[in-house]
Amino acid sequence: MKYSVARLFPASDWITTYRTEHLSGDLTAGIITAIMLAPQAMAYAMLAGLPPQTGLYASIVPLVFYAMFGSSRTLAVGPVALVSLLTANAIGGVAEQGSANYLGAALTLAGLVGAMNIALGLLRAGFLVNFLSHPVISGFTSAAALVIGFSQLTHILGVPLPRSHNLFEIVGAVATEITKVNLAAVTIAIFAIAFLVFSKTILGAILKVFGAHSGFINTATKAAPFFLVSIFTVIVWGLALDETQNIAVVGAIPKGLPPLTLPEFNPALWRTLAPAALLITVVGFLESVSVAKALAGKRREKIDPNREFIGLGAANLGAAVTSGYPVTGGFSRSIVNFQAGAATPLASIITAILVALTVIFLTPLFFFLPKAALAAIIVVAVSSLVDWRTPLHLWRYDRADAASLIVTFAAVLIAGVEIGIIAGVVFSLLVFLWRTAQPHIAVIGRISGTEHFRNISRHTVETDPNIIVIRVDENLYFANSNFLEQFVIHTIAENRSAKHLVINCNAINSIDGSALDSLEMLIENLKDAGVTLHFAAVKGPIMDRLKRTDFLERLAPGHIFLSTHEALRTLQESATDTSRDIDGQHQSKAAE
User: Rounded to an integer, what distance in angstroms lies between the CA atom of residue 364 and that of residue 249?
Assistant: First the structure.
């Protein structure tokens, strides 16, 4: 009964076992994460083309819903850069930014993402994300980070630029407007970026030198965005830079809790937004699960990928009914939440309460917040997403994987995020098919004095001229069965004294129908060439399927041996017995 309740309502697990010693860590983590989340949420909402309060709204109920239904104890859910970019890309094609329809499309998108997450969770489809390889994700993330960073040039430079998610279009637009740059906005952005980088890289070391407590150091460095928006808000207000220097500011933000909303019932809009919603679902899930697994592993905890779908689905449905937009687990905020001492999802609930208090009482203080400062927060946040090491590492290790990364990266920059990631997935699948269609096959021999067999091209081994043993390092299916057949024919042609061919099946986990037909034809072709085909180390599930066919009868006089050693020993003994029989017959004839 307890297990069933925990599956339906995962929060019951940590609520019923909550210990008072966790409270201080959860409280500290909730406060620090809230201080970090509030300015980030407004910045990411701006990235999505939405009002700043939308980001704050998306940081209240979604956090509570995930705490109730998610499986991670430390994942910090809310607006993130990649999902914000995908949201802008999706709803920008169906409504004009700033219009009521634009906000309505964002709510509908959040509802679709929530529904898709829950559906995939109920279908236990967590395995599907395995089709997105690490090179594709790395290429997509790096390119999207560059697009996000360049998209903020309109606020950093203080010039109006057309909304675009094509890097080259953004650069071209900047080139045409370069003479209209607002130097005051550029100055704010430069100082803001320098302040954030300083806080992120140097401030902690300086405070440590002065003997500051580790908790204070952690709070000070992670609260940098909060201090940044406070400082520049005061500066813009005090110097009236919005009037004298034409600095763009956030403006009036409505006070009060988010109004209740419902996604629009519009099947045509749903169909239009469905592809983007699916992409956000997958990308958001990957970002959440990757950090959730890493953090859970540090405490020997575990997460349930299918339950993560449910938790993220509930969070997005919460955003859809409270004037928010799609959310997911944030990488940097989750790490901050973890390092600040979060032991249970109560930390996220505390964060949500503090953000709610912010929108009730503090929104008037954000009126003079310069958009250039928010843009700086975005730029610094996404800079860590650009992965320079993986392409170099892959280029040295596996150039096919490196090609997948490069194709994804280039496609995102040139064609946009949706087409880019689809191109990367398709290319990586083609690379997979190309690899498996040409599997590694080696002629192997026995290491002297052992039962171990190794590649004759790499090791000093013993071989028998009458017996060829090959090892196939791949499953056999329709795409590579002909490759195996050609390899065998070529090998037999080069070893005309061979009477037996043994296929070592240690690395073969499945044989499909097409490959089985090919093996049956190979048996007949080898018989015509005077060679008997045998198999060794065939795995149980494959053997069970072979027994349901007439394959074993077709194989005769070939055998299936338990091991390659047994195959070689048996065939050599058989050859010796045959040789003795022939010698005995010759001796009898001589005596006559």
Answer: 12
pLDDT digits (tens, 9 = 90+) for 245-297: 999 999 888 999 999 998 888 899 999 999 999 999 988 888 888 788 878 87
Q: Write the DSSP string, 378-398.
A: HHHHHHTT--SHHHHHHHHH-
371: left (phi over 0), alpha (psi -120 to 50) or beta: alpha
d(CA 514, CA 210): 71
Q: Return d(Cα 547, Cα 533) in angstroms, integer.
A: 17
Residue 582 CB contacts under 8 Å (≥ 6 apart), including other chains: none
Residues near 345 by beta carbon (within 8 Å), at least 6 away in sequence:
11, 14, 66, 67, 68, 70, 72, 73
Q: How do the domains of the chain map onto residue ranges?
A: 20-409, 441-591
Digit-coded pLDDT (tens) for 291-350: 888 788 777 777 888 888 999 999 999 999 999 999 999 887 888 888 878 889 999 999
Q: Say which CATH class 441-591 falls into.
A: alpha beta
How many Å apart are CA 149 and CA 158, to the nearest integer?
15
Structure tokens at 272: 């239009």
Q: What is the DSSP string of 232-266?
A: HHHHHHHHTHHHHS---B------SSPPP------
583 pLDDT band, cuts 50/70/90, is very low
Rounded to whole angstroms, the Cα distance separating 564 from 549 reads 23
User: What's the CA gap between 508 and 31, in Å, rounded?
Assistant: 54
Q: How far is CA 578 from CA 387, 574, 581, 592, in A?
A: 65, 6, 5, 22
For residues 219 and 205, what is the distance between their CA atoms, to the nearest angstrom? Answer: 13
Smallest CA-to-CA distance from 348 within 61, 18, 540, 24 is with 61
Sheet with 453-455: strands ordered across: 453-455, 441-446, 467-472, 500-504, 532-536, 560-561
Residues 261 and 370: beta-carbon distance below 8 Å: no
Residues 103-117, mean pLDDT to the nearest whole number = 95
Q: Does residue 502 sit in helix, strand or coil? A: strand
**Which residues, including other chains, have CB under 8 Å from residue 151's CB and lie 6 or more apart?**
47, 85, 163, 164, 165, 170
CA angle 15, 20, 26 (to 5 degrees): 75
Q: How far apart are CA 355 and CA 332, in angstroms?
A: 18
